[in-house]
Amino acid sequence: FPDAVYVFTPKSKIMALPRGATVMDFAYAIHSDVGNRTVSARINGEERPLRTELSNGDVVEVITDEKAQPN
Fold it and tell me: Which residue ranges of the chain lie beneath pLDDT 70?
């Protein structure tokens, strides 16, 4: 499936996203409120920028803050 990337949530749920998807795409795919409150992320346990492009098999953890707002 060359048009998709498959990543995992910390609870091992698999999510299919379009190739080239970033952490923010992942956050909004979970729920718009999650995307709106995202402040940082960990990919495979390492803190990464929100613009990081995801790869097959990545485990993505989104970190949110109730006071955060989209910019």
Answer: 1
DSSP 8-state symbol, 22: B
**Residue 55 is which amino acid?**
S
CB atoms near residue 32 (< 10 Å): 11
Segment 28-45, tens digit of pLDDT: 999 999 999 999 999 999
The reply to whether the predicted model has a pTM over 0.85 is yes
CA atoms lying within 13 Å on the CB side of residue 7: 26
Sign of CA dihedral 11, 14, 19, 21: negative
